[in-house]
Design goal:
heterotrimer; A mainly alpha (327); B alpha/beta (391); C mainly alpha (287); A: 327 residues; mainly alpha; 15 helices; C: 287 residues; ABC transporter involved in vitamin B12 uptake, BtuC; two-stranded antiparallel ribbon; 12 helices; globular
Chain lengths: 327, 391, 287
């Protein structure tokens, strides 16, 4: 952070430069392959949750849209990937793309409603739409299998070479690669003029149109993109576990992803990734010790983080680091 | 940012608890259940059944020490159940998968049991198709068609009802129950005059009960999941003046379980149900079981508990037969056709379908010595699941 | 003979009253301090367990346990407010969400630890059971009692807010917090009292709810969605709004199930989305 950038281009370039800490982060994600080969199916689930949290970060962290119904897109992606593999073919990459498109379609349609509201109303509208979709999926038993879960997913080997194995090695590699690619897209998007406009909308919804950035149309765009990303996350869980249940669309899943993102720190790209990692590892460890009472320890974790590190773990840490380096 | 990295690394390090080297003389059982969330009590009772069996029969069988590892799915999450099953197999090296509060959990784990060739003991999940998902799955609990078809046949014949209204929860098990009941009731010459499917998350039943009442039915069939709903719908019947003494209200066992009957009080008297287990079932074995269960957990066992108990019995006996060999093929071969006396009565594992064969009891809620309880009034012996092989 | 529509209306209003008592506190605290308290239903659950313990272990009559449920929940909320919530009044919504969800998680685990995961049955006194016949309608006694409680609570709240000094302070603080401070109103104290009152009402709601919807540790989350729906449909900070919204949700739930059971699971969400699209600030909301 030597000198302040002078032109807008220079500013965006300075944002998009890769810092060593980021490269280190992605190197660490490879560590489980060697150090924790028995934890790869958990790592897979973390990668998927991280991608889901990242998709939420785009709208919550960058555009200020708090959604309690984001599982709708996760679920649409999961069911689409499942249904596609059963009735069309089991090739995974096309499955991902189809799932992303379908989720994007749902996102685009609902974005016209979402873009009109703010605050609690917005939260409740997303919640309501999510619950409606959950009920619809329960009713559409013939298509989704209802509450017993969707049956008959058959996916081919990834790239015709790697079969999803019991250790979750292929699953984690596949999800991690997907996460990384989508992350690159999200990072590019955020560090573009469009990303700047979004932050402007988040901070002042009324003033942005005055400087030529039409708030609702920007919101519609980012909401659609975010829905597509959530759909990819859902498709990953469907393909790597070959299961989809109604839970993919549930309120709990929507609430969990908000908790993960806020825990890690919203509006920082890595917040969702860190939050998902810490939440799921903590949950796995606590529920291993006390399968009935792990809620207690997760609760303590959340309360402690809020009290000590406001704005999430990354938000709090960067503040602490900032204070420390100023001394 | 650097701090974040160290924190993440530390957490990852904490995640690798040392995996105990697999001792030669140990058989590990991985129990996958919804220990937290809405269905927690189910998981707790299954677990109590497991604990009681191990307390009574020791933790060593056929020279092997039995070790139980418990994992929480938090609810009907197929993907979490699948991951936990994978981890149990690859990380903890379990020999047997067991538990399964809910159908999606069992279906999620089925693929793992199949691929890893491990015995999977379904101690609760009641959708018929579960056992068809892998040749390594055996069920000791119940199937819904087994109960609801028996209820339908009984009501139309011995029950003496010719017309019925059905009320079920609108999700997989409810639809299974509705289909089975209506099919058997019609086959026995009865007529279904109306039916309603109620939302799964449904705190208030007054409107649905009013709909039923408008048709003035001679009898009603009810299926609701256990928890808060059985008492709620029972009270709604009472409020509408629908007296079980005048209208035959028959249900599966959840709708008149111990907590529901307690909460309903006198208005539950006369309610009929078809079910495979109740703590009031009269037999020496069950009396001892209930007494021991109370001494250990200060509550009565229910059908979840007996599922856990019988599941452990099956595992112990199978291990005795194989002489401690714990691979899936030997265990499933030993389990097929196994017969034993359970607290619920004589039960067996069908060698063809690996599904439970048991008596279905027709019970009536009565006041016995001041306590309101389910009393067996009839039984249908050795009922198999009627849907396997039916197309 | 009265047509069934009256029965549907009555049941809907009775159910709505339960929702109203459960949610009015959250509406006021959200409207007053913009504090997102997702642990609201944990206080309701505490009230419920208070009633259960007093009735089962100490053999109190049901009516005597209701004030106790109110006070225990109010007391607990004061403790939590003083120790934790105060520090976050000026924090972001998201931090408030994280804190209060964390507290709700903790409350669920504690309830499971002390009271097990079983459903808690309560034995209602005989005079609250059964039903009256009224021109061919069945009027459940307990539902009639719920309506009476709901109306009484509404009347008391409106009296307090409209006709007392404290009420005037609350109204001033909801309308314009900065101005209220400028006029010398101790907004923090006003909020603390309001918060305790709202949580106490939630506790009362939890106690009243056992007979209709049961009680187990998942209560803290199960009814959160319903409470949030009532609050948003009614409009933040509005007592009458919550009252109207609770009636609307209660009636549409019961009527939907009666007339259109196929839509049973959808209807209240549809009503909520429709109302919010028509009036984004809720029925009686001002923003």
């Amino acid at each position: 952070m030597a000198t302040a950038p002078t032109t807008p281009q220079a500013y965006l370039q300075s944002l998009s430069r890769w810092r060593p800490i980021e490269i280190a982060f992605w190197l660490v994600t490879l560590v489980p392959f060697w150090l924790f080969p028995n934890y790869l199916s958990l790592a897979n689930q973390i990668a998927v949750a991280a991608l889901f949290a990242l998709s939420l970060d785009l709208i919550l962290g960058y555009a200020g849209i708090v959604s309690l119904g984001h599982a709708a897109f996760f679920g649409v992606g999961a069911y689409t990937a499942g249904i596609f593999s059963k009735f069309v073919w089991g090739e995974v990459f096309t499955g991902l793309i189809v799932a992303a498109l379908m989720a994007a379609l749902f996102g685009y349609v609902s974005s016209f409603i979402v873009a009109r509201f703010r605050h609690l109303t917005l939260i409740m509208i997303t919640l309501g739409l999510g619950l409606l979709l959950h009920s619809a999926a329960n009713s559409a038993h013939w298509l989704t299998g209802g509450s017993d879960g969707f049956q008959g997913i058959s996916v081919w080997k990834v790239a015709g070479l790697f079969k999803f194995d019991l250790y979750g090695k292929v699953a984690y590699a596949y999800s991690l690669c997907t996460l990384f690619v989508v992350f690159l897209c999200a990072r590019r998007l955020i560090n573009s003029p469009f990303g700047l406009a979004l932050r402007g909308i988040r901070d002042n919804w009324v003033r942005m149109p005055a400087i030529g950035a039409d708030s609702p149309s920007h919101i519609r765009k980012v909401y659609t993109i975010s829905a597509a990303m959530a759909g990819i996350a859902g498709a990953l869980i469907a393909q790597t576990t070959q299961t989809v249940s109604l839970d993919a669309l549930s309120f709990e899943r929507s609430a969990d992803v908000v908790v993960m993102l806020v825990l890690g720190g919203a509006g920082r790209l890595y917040g969702g990734l860190v939050g998902a990692t810490i939440f799921l590892i903590a949950r796995d460890q606590f529920s291993g010790i006390a399968p009935q009472y792990w809620y207690f320890w997760i609760g303590i974790l959340l309360v402690t983080v809020v009290m000590l590190l406001p704005n999430g773990i990354l938000g709090g840490l960067s503040k602490l680091v900032g204070r420390w380096s100023r001394k | 940012m650097r701090h974040m990295m160290t924190a993440a690394a530390a957490l990852l390090a904490a995640a690798t608890l040392p995996v105990a080297a697999q001792a030669q003389g140990t058989v590990k059982i991985g129990v996958i259940s919804a220990y937290s969330g809405q269905f927690a009590d189910t998981a707790v009772q299954i677990d109590n059944g497991i604990k009681l069996y191990m307390k009574q029969h020791g933790d060593t069988v056929a020279g092997k020490k039995i070790e139980v590892i418990r994992k929480d799915t938090g609810g009907p999450n197929a993907d979490v159940a699948k991951r936990l099953a994978q981890e149990l197999v690859v990380r903890d090296g379990v020999d047997i998968l067991a538990g399964f509060t809910l159908t999606p959990e069992a279906l999620g784990a089925a693929g793992v049991a199949d691929e890893a060739k491990k015995l999977l003991v379904d101690m609760n999940a009641a959708t018929a198709i579960v056992t068809e998902k892998s040749p390594y799955i055996v069920r000791v609990s119940l199937t819904l068609p087994q109960i609801s078809e028996t209820a339908g046949t009984w009501l139309a014949t011995k029950g003496g009802a010719k017309k019925v209204y059905t009320m079920v929860s609108d999700f997989g098990p409810g639809i299974d129950a509705e289909t089975g009941f209506q099919r058997a009731f019609k086959a026995a010459g009865g007529e279904v005059i109306g039916s309603v499917r109620m939302p799964v998350a449904n705190p208030d039943f007054s409107a649905f009960v009013q709909r039923a009442k408008d048709l003035n039915p001679e009898s009603i069939f009810v299926f609701v999941p256990g928890g808060a709903q059985p008492a709620a719908i029972g009270k709604a019947f009472a409020e509408r003046g629908m007296d079980p003494a005048k209208i035959k209200i028959i249900s599966t066992g959840e709708a008149v379980d111990e907590q529901a009957v307690k909460a309903m009080g006198d208005v539950s008297i006369g309610r009929l149900s078809a079910w495979h287990y109740d703590y009031n079932h009269k037999s020496k074995l069950n009396d001892d079981f209930v007494k021991a269960f109370n001494a250990e957990f200060k509550r009565n066992p229910d059908f979840f508990a007996v599922g856990g108990y019988d599941g452990m019995h099956l595992i112990y006996e199978a291990l005795k037969k194989t002489g401690g060999k714990a691979d899936g093929d030997s265990l499933i071969a030993a389990a097929k056709g196994m017969k034993w006396e359970s607290p619920r009565g004589p039960i067996a594992i069908d060698p063809d379908t690996r599904d439970i064969v048991q008596n279905v009891y027709i019970r009536k809620v009565e006041k016995v010595g001041g306590a309101i309880v389910n009393v067996d009034i009839d039984k249908v012996e050795n009922v198999k699941d009627p849907t396997h092989g039916r197309k | 003979m009265l047509p069934p529509i009256f029965g549907v209306l009555f049941d809907g209003i009775a159910y709505g009253m339960l929702l109203f008592v459960l949610s009015v506190g959250l509406s006021v605290t959200l409207g007053l301090m913009n504090f997102v308290n997702l642990a609201h239903c944990a206080f309701a659950m505490l009230g419920g367990y208070t009633t259960v313990v007093l009735m089962q272990d100490l053999h109190w009559p049901f009516f005597a346990t209701l004030p106790a449920a109110f006070f225990i929940a109010a007391l607990a909320s004061i403790v939590v407010e003083r120790t934790l919530y105060r520090r976050l009044y000026r924090a972001s919504d998201l931090d408030q969400v994280l804190l209060t969800i964390g507290l709700a998680f903790i409350s669920v685990a504690i309830a499971a630890w002390f009271f097990t995961t079983q459903q808690q049955p309560v034995d209602m006194p005989a005079y609250l059971r059964g039903s009256y016949q009224f021109f061919g309608l069945n009027i459940g006694v307990y539902r009639l009692f719920l309506v009476a409680v709901g109306v009484a609570v509404t009347a008391m709240l409106i009296m307090t807010v409209e006709h007392t000094r404290f009420g005037a302070q609350v109204r001033a603080a909801v309308d314009n917090q900065r101005m209220a401070r400028g006029l010398g109103i101790d907004v923090d104290r006003t909020f603390a009292v309001t918060f305790a009152l709202g949580s106490g009402l939630a506790g009362l709601g939890g106690a009243l709810a056992i007979e209709i919807v049961g009680l187990d540790p998942s209560f803290a989350f199960t009814y959160l969605v319903y409470v949030l729906i009532v609050v948003s449909v009614g409009g933040l900070g509005s007592i009458l709004g919550s009252f109207a919204a609770a009636c609307l949700i209660g009636i549409s739930d019961v009527a939907g199930k009666y007339y259109l059971p196929e839509l049973g699971a959808f209807l209240i969400y549809l009503v909520m989305v429709a109302v919010l699209m028509w009036k984004p600030a809720g029925l009686f909301g001002r923003r």
